[in-house]
Design goal:
alpha/beta, nine-stranded parallel β-sheet, 20 helices, binds S-adenosylmethionine
């Protein structure tokens, strides 16, 4: 039976509730009075439940869809302004014992080169990432208790934080590793991680079991209840996501929102981020072999409806998507993107020729970070390298309280400006520098107009700029 407060995955992601919601949406997708009521509620900016949101996703009325897209854009502005946070993935190891049929790291793939970074190699990768200007990483690893035990992950996190190169440092390490135990989540928490990210891949249990035929990841309940264990281990920022293309997107969308509602209901803290990866070509993986691929229009609608349903959550799109798709999604709700990414183990320090490549998937947006920054500025966005929430302990419910009241810009906006300034001084090309300083001048004016400056605490400014005494 459906129970968002239950700790049992079969109850908080109840299959029957998903099916009933889909039927309800199908029956009401052209019912304009129901849709108008949902849109009125959505305009309050407090979110929607999964049943309301799936009706909006299903709706194919042209006028209503325009309203949906412009509302998503407005909500994005209200909560996140024009800021876009930057990060890069860091692949530690592609050893994996699982049999995920969509992932080239699956254990039966005998020809992909298997690599695992030593601590010395991690230092080199982190130095290369710092030389690009990155401050925030997401570490990635396959699941392999022998090659990638938790001790290896913890040691790697420690190494990453220890590298201080020129003015650089990594200030937030997010972690995307396989579902684990409460004890291990406690250890990750103590190691000072930012967000714990785990993609559900698919919420449909039957498909999940077929897509993960072997290895520990086969266990649907263990995987789906991972965020509960992470919370119990003290990690209060968790990131959800599904791999679009594996199952029906309507099913995934509904269940993803049920997962967010479950976290809210039990811990009072919804997902810190929601990622929207789509399955891509990779080594021995052909995305066309999966029947549920979604086109760019559907993808954009999904992003808009997630933004409306969960207004406070950070939304992430990676370099799996090309520049034009990313541009479209930025308008509709995305607040974090990766830039200059390499998805192979050791790819930053030592890029491999293609046939020796250990990449997890083909990157579509291959532009260097500086070009991504320049592009964001030209589109009117404010690139941010800020990690101050994490640095000053504003995580979990403390973050949510400020964010849900739409006050987070009081912190994020000035810090985004300062961290952009820092990036421009230390890493940018001349062209990006010029554009960036012009943008900063404009942004500072809006700051003074809003009087936000006064609300910024000096310690945040110092945390963000490595002690540099920036003034507006
Ligand atoms: N091994 C960890 C786990 O089991 O959750 C996660 C790390 S994995 C390196 C990161 C994510 O990449 C996976 O959760 C999956 O959604 C995604 N991924 C795997 N194969 C992919 C593909 N062919 N195209 C796009 N994304 C893929």
């Amino acid at each position: 039976m459906y129970n968002p407060k239950s700790h049992d995955a079969d109850e908080f992601i109840c299959h029957e509730e998903v099916l009933e919601s889909l039927k309800y949406a199908e029956d009401n997708k052209n019912n304009l009075s129901v849709i108008d009521k949902i849109l009125d509620k959505a305009r309050l900016g407090k979110g929607l439940n999964h049943r309301e949101a799936i009706i909006l996703l299903e709706c194919d009325d042209e006028e209503k869809n325009k309203e949906i897209f412009s509302l998503a854009e407005q909500i994005k502005k209200d909560y996140y302004g024009n800021r876009i946070v930057l990060f890069a993935p860091l692949y530690l190891s592609n050893y994996c014992v699982n049999g995920c049929v969509y992932c080239p790291y699956h254990a039966k793939n005998k020809h992909i080169p298997r690599r695992k970074l030593s601590q010395e190699e991690i230092k080199k990768e982190v130095t290369a990432l710092q030389d690009m200007g990155h401050k925030r990483l997401a570490i990635e690893a396959g699941e392999d208790p022998v090659n990638n035990p938790i001790e290896y992950i913890l040691e790697s996190i420690n190494t990453i934080y220890s590298v201080k190169h020129k003015n650089g440092s990594i200030r937030r390490v997010n972690v995307n590793i396989a579902a684990t135990t409460v004890e291990n989540y406690k250890k990750l928490h103590e190691a000072g991680i930012g967000t714990y990210i785990l993609f559900q891949e698919t919420y449909n249990k039957k498909s999940y079991e077929e897509l993960h035929p072997t290895g520990p990841k086969h266990n649907y309940k263990y995987h789906t209840e991972a965020m509960d264990r992470a919370m119990q281990g003290g990690i209060d920022d968790v990131g959800l996501g599904v791999l679009f293309g594996l199952e029906s997107y309507k099913y995934e969308f509904t269940a993803l929102l049920m997962h967010a509602e479950h976290l809210e209901a039990v811990y009072g803290v919804g997902p810190h981020t929601i990622s929207v990866p789509r399955i891509k070509k990779a080594d021995d993986i052909d995305p066309d072999a999966f029947d549920n691929g979604i086109d760019d229009d559907t993808f954009a609608k999904i992003a808009a409806c997630i933004r409306i349903a969960v207004p406070y959550t950070g939304m992430i799109v990676s370099t799996r998507e090309n520049a034009s798709c990313r541009e479209r999604l930025l308008h509709l709700g995305i607040s974090q993107i990766s830039g200059g990414s390499k998805t192979s183990v050791g790819g930053y320090f030592n890029p491999m020729p293609e046939k020796e490549d250990s990449a997890q998937f083909d990157v579509s947006d291959r532009r260097p970070l500086d070009e991504v920054i320049k592009w964001l500025i030209q589109l009117g966005y404010l690139p941010s390298f800020c990690t101050a929430c994490y640095g000053s302990g504003r995580t979990g419910d403390r973050f949510m309280e400020v964010c849900k009241n739409q006050q987070i810009h009081n912190f994020c906006h000035p810090n985004a400006i300062l961290t952009l300034k820092e990036y421009l001084e230390d890493y940018a090309s001349e062209e990006t520098k010029k554009l960036g300083y012009d943008l900063i001048a404009k942004e500072v004016e809006t700051l003074e107009a809003d009087n936000i400056k006064k609300t910024v605490k000096e310690d945040l400014v110092k945390i963000e700029c490595g002690g540099r005494d920036y003034k507006f």
